[in-house]
Amino acid sequence: MAEEADKATKYYTLEEIQKHNHSKSIWLILHYKVYNLSKFLEEHPAGGEVLREQAGGDATENFEDVGHSTHA
User: Where does the record place the Cytochrome b5 heme-binding domain (predicted)?
Assistant: First the structure.
């Protein structure tokens, strides 16, 4: 069972993630996981600009500083 989970895990380099820092492709890191938030820009409660500012990098600290709910 654990072997199946390992096969499904995709790893990215920071260099790969940093390429996704524009309005058509927004990737960021939260708690060591990579999220593609490109389609979430318009739905984000604080607006898409907040996500654009964090795109291509680790947004964990800023995410925690805002005090998101457990649902977020």
Answer: 9-72
